[in-house]
Amino acid sequence: MKKKTLKVIFAIVILAFLFIQVYPVLWLFISSVRPSAELATKPFSLPTSLTFQNFAKVWSDGKILGYMWNSFKVTAISLILIVFLSATAGFALSKFKMRFNKAVYSFFTFGIMVPVQITLIPLFIFYSKTGVLNTSMSMVLPQVGFALPLSVMMFVSFYSFVPNELIEAAVMDGCTPYGIFVKIVFPLARNTVITIASMYSILIWNDFIFANTFISDSKAKTVAMGLKDYVGAFGNIDWGSTFAAITISILPPMIIYFALNKWVTSGMTMGATKG
């Protein structure tokens, strides 16, 4: 009887947690197809009518596509650099017996403790002097820099479970360090790569702090910045168009997550440490 009671309580807690997680997304989707007038007067009531006029309005102005393209560029370039740099650095730190391995690894782990906020002003000054402001690279560089510490740690943790005998056998067969990495070690790290890529793709796509600091040109705005366009004069907001734009903007990361969910779960539980 006691076990059944505990199971019921556990089920209720899980359902409550699931409701808390799912409700905002469902409310967003429903609000995106409600008339703006209805949202302004009864935002939390059940919809009395549905319309796709909000989506038509967002698509017709053409801005959202440009913002999504900018976000895609920043995300794609950042992920390529993050995976390449962290995978190679992790391999070197894990398998190459060098004098300063521990010091370099400690340097990367120290980077996790650095708050993003304290770097904004120095980066802004540096970018303004070098002419990098209002470019995709102004967001790519800090994204890569702040992602490397955790990514390197995950790769080092994974590579430590790759048998040294496997690498020694490849060396005996005449394989170079580059060949060992490309043909043997890196393919084994698939779960780790997918975990890092999926995790940071969502974070970079939704980034606001770097975009808000380094981007002022409308042509270089990302999705997170572009949503501010729906705030009109005196703070008036077109809620219908805003919710429609948010719905469109969150679809890519949601598709990525659900498509890679199996590998992400595997990478978080065991792939990030031992494949």
From TrEMBL:
**UniProt-listed SUPFAM superfamilies:** MetI-like
Gene3D superfamilies per UniProt: MetI-like
- Please list the GO biological process terms of this entry: transmembrane transport
UniProt keyword terms in alphabetical order = Cell membrane, Membrane, Transmembrane, Transmembrane helix, Transport
Q: Major place of localization?
A: membrane
Location comes to: Cell membrane
In Swiss-Prot or TrEMBL terms, this protein is called: Raffinose/stachyose/melibiose transport system permease protein
The organism is: Faecalicatena contorta
